[in-house]
Design a protein that fits this description.
By secondary structure, the protein is an alpha+beta fold. It contains 2 helices and 11 strands. A 6-stranded antiparallel beta sheet has the order 3-6-7-8-9-10, with no helix packed on it. α1 packs antiparallel against α2.
């Protein structure tokens, strides 16, 4: 590969990586947690993840809802994480501002499970057993979930590898040039000073 092409590849890779890392993420994911109080008849905690909400946007429906854990006493035979698909959402209204969920209203029903989040009720209900884990105290925690960006990291790695190769080639070229200059200097000295 020619030096100019290598430099172009390195610069293009770094520019693409910088753009990918500088651009804001299109969607945010949030974990959620709520525990039982006197509202439900099964003690324990329900955890999951809300996927695909946009920042600074109101009235949203997530692209995916996952149940990560729930009390065994509910009697489900669901393997976790259990995906509740967008077609299972009966209604949804999420507001996100500054990277935080400021309002959540969700009802998802699938495979005999009902997940409900609306003020003040938060619960997971099993239609088959009639058992519920939830609360009526508006007690739910949303936390940002980390979203890996392997594509950006990969582009950055390609750019850095291109720069390393460019530097290595530049170093080899300067050694060849220095060797040629030294030989030329010696030849020049021999011509001007035969005793050298």
């Amino acid at each position: 590969m020619q030096f100019a092409n290598l430099r172009g590849v390195a610069l293009a890779g770094l520019m693409a990586a910088a753009c990918a890392l500088a651009s804001p993420a299109l969607a945010l994911n949030f974990t959620f947690t709520f525990s039982n109080n006197s509202y439900g008849n099964v003690p324990g905690t329900v955890t999951g993840e809300i996927v695909g909400l946009l920042d600074n946007t109101n009235g949203q429906t997530p692209t995916q809802v996952y149940l990560d854990s729930y009390p065994a006493g509910l009697g489900f035979a669901l393997t976790t994480p259990f995906a509740m698909l967008p077609g299972d959402v009966q209604y949804s209204d999420f507001n996100v501002s500054g990277g935080e969920v400021t309002y959540a209203d969700l009802r998802v029903t699938t495979d005999g499970a009902l997940l409900q989040m609306n003020d003040p009720y938060r619960y997971l209900y099993n239609y088959a057993t009639g058992k519920t884990t939830g609360n009526d105290a508006n007690a739910i925690t949303f936390a940002p979930a980390s979203v890996p960006e392997p594509a950006s990291i990969g582009v950055l790695a390609v750019g850095l590898a291109g720069l390393a190769a460019r530097r290595r080639r530049a170093g080899q070229a300067s050694i060849r040039c220095a060797t040629k200059q030294a030989a030329a200097t010696k030849a020049s000295l021999c011509l001007t000073n035969p005793s050298y």
